[in-house]
Amino acid sequence: MLLRRGLQWALDTLFMVVLSVVVLLAFVGFAVLAFLLGLREIWLVYLPLWVWIGTLVVGELYVDLWFPYRRGGTTPAMRLLRLRIVTLNGGVPKFRDYFLRWLLMVVDGMFLGLVGAVLILVTPRHQRLGDMVARTLVVRDGVDESPRRQSAEVAVRGGDPVRHGLTQLG
What we know:
single chain; mainly alpha; 3-stranded antiparallel β-sheet; 9 helices; elongated
């Protein structure tokens, strides 16, 4: 479970980094071309850096906030790994829930993610701090699991996991 969530984070991060490097290279190319054409403005030196930083920030907000809000609780990597974010009662999280999860990633990401990893390992519902405060869970989407996991799902959600097509990661 921890490995799946770690892989999901790594894939989402890789997606953002690759996109931002492509944008950076495009703007470096633009700056070099402008320099070769005789434009010697100081802003051309800083433009690629600022655009790269802006791309990273906007990409982070898009992947961690907007994409799951608009796509049923999944990031691009979560879709690939068949994971989804749900509320504790199995509902669809609100934007503020995604915002709280994102904001508390500052704490969960401390010491290279060790804080979040330890919390995922020791909490009964395998939640990091952002999940606990936002009252959300990361669940497998539509995977048949053992009766033990399904009974844990019933206890967590107070409902029938088959009806919801969800199983808690565990």
